[in-house]
Amino acid sequence: MSKTSITTVAMLEMTQEGREMTDEELKANPAVEQEWDIQWEIFRLLPTVKSVILS
Predict the structure, then answer these.
(1) Model-wide pTM > 0.85
(2) Entry's InterPro entries (predicted)?
(3) Is 35 exposed, middle or buried (CB count within 10 Å of its CB: 0-12, 13-18, 19+)?
(4) Residue 1: its pLDDT value, please?
Protein backbone atom coordinates (compact mmCIF):
# COMPACT_ATOMS: atom_id res chain seq x y z
CA MET A 1 0.00 0.00 0.00
CA SER A 2 1.31 3.42 -0.86
CA LYS A 3 0.66 6.18 1.64
CA THR A 4 2.31 8.56 -0.81
CA SER A 5 -0.23 7.72 -3.50
CA ILE A 6 -3.21 8.16 -1.18
CA THR A 7 -1.78 11.43 0.15
CA THR A 8 -1.24 12.71 -3.39
CA VAL A 9 -4.85 12.00 -4.35
CA ALA A 10 -6.10 13.63 -1.13
CA MET A 11 -3.96 16.73 -1.71
CA LEU A 12 -5.19 17.00 -5.30
CA GLU A 13 -8.81 16.81 -4.16
CA MET A 14 -8.25 19.51 -1.52
CA THR A 15 -6.46 21.72 -4.05
CA GLN A 16 -9.32 21.36 -6.51
CA GLU A 17 -11.83 22.19 -3.75
CA GLY A 18 -9.71 25.15 -2.67
CA ARG A 19 -9.87 24.16 1.00
CA GLU A 20 -8.69 21.72 3.64
CA MET A 21 -10.90 18.68 4.07
CA THR A 22 -11.48 16.65 7.21
CA ASP A 23 -10.48 13.00 7.43
CA GLU A 24 -14.17 12.10 7.25
CA GLU A 25 -14.63 14.14 4.07
CA LEU A 26 -11.57 12.53 2.51
CA LYS A 27 -12.74 9.03 3.46
CA ALA A 28 -16.04 9.72 1.68
CA ASN A 29 -14.37 11.34 -1.35
CA PRO A 30 -14.88 9.18 -4.48
CA ALA A 31 -11.35 9.76 -5.82
CA VAL A 32 -9.76 8.77 -2.51
CA GLU A 33 -12.05 5.73 -2.24
CA GLN A 34 -11.11 4.71 -5.77
CA GLU A 35 -7.39 5.01 -4.98
CA TRP A 36 -7.84 2.76 -1.91
CA ASP A 37 -9.73 0.24 -4.08
CA ILE A 38 -6.94 0.22 -6.67
CA GLN A 39 -4.30 -0.19 -3.97
CA TRP A 40 -6.16 -3.13 -2.39
CA GLU A 41 -6.61 -4.79 -5.79
CA ILE A 42 -2.87 -4.58 -6.42
CA PHE A 43 -2.18 -5.93 -2.92
CA ARG A 44 -4.56 -8.87 -3.51
CA LEU A 45 -2.91 -9.69 -6.84
CA LEU A 46 0.65 -9.75 -5.51
CA PRO A 47 0.63 -13.42 -4.38
CA THR A 48 -0.68 -14.48 -7.80
CA VAL A 49 1.93 -12.45 -9.64
CA LYS A 50 4.67 -13.80 -7.38
CA SER A 51 3.65 -17.42 -8.00
CA VAL A 52 3.53 -16.87 -11.78
CA ILE A 53 6.97 -15.26 -11.79
CA LEU A 54 8.50 -18.02 -9.68
CA SER A 55 6.98 -20.89 -11.67
Answers:
(1) no
(2) DUF416, YP001051499.1-like_dom_sf
(3) buried
(4) 65
